[in-house]
Amino acid sequence: MRALDDIREEYEFLEADERYRLLIELGRELEEMPAALKTDATLVRGCSASVWVYPTEANGQLHFLADSNAAITKGIVALVISAVQDRPAAEVAAMDIAAELAPFDLRNQLSSNRTQGVPNMIALVQEHAARIAAA
């Protein structure tokens, strides 16, 4: 998975249509999430498309599997995940993920339908991180 800074650098130089294509490409680059993990327990509430996020932890580092049934939404999920992937759980729990994503200006780049679930994705990721950090 690409680093968020690398994605941001590329994103800033693109026009609107190209930004959509980049998001779709990012979604395609997500590690495949097994169908068995796409359950009600891993479903992100409040998204217009179906979004699933599943956390794992190894050696103190969080690793997320995620997917969506909509290409643009899957790219947005990839952005969220790239901000936190393979970082310590305590660090992720304390991060301001919304601030990390602010330079992408998703609210002005995409329809409100596509971005309405982003706060819920962020909250779910941080809930998982806090739970794992406390364990």
From TrEMBL:
It holds the Pfam family SufE. It comes from the Bacteria. Gene3D superfamilies: 3.90.1010.10. Residues 13-127 form the Fe-S metabolism associated domain. InterPro entries: Fe-S_metab-assoc_dom. PANTHER family: SUFE-LIKE PROTEIN 2, CHLOROPLASTIC, SULFUR ACCEPTOR PROTEIN CSDE. Belongs to the SufE family. This is SufE family protein. It comes from Croceibacterium xixiisoli.
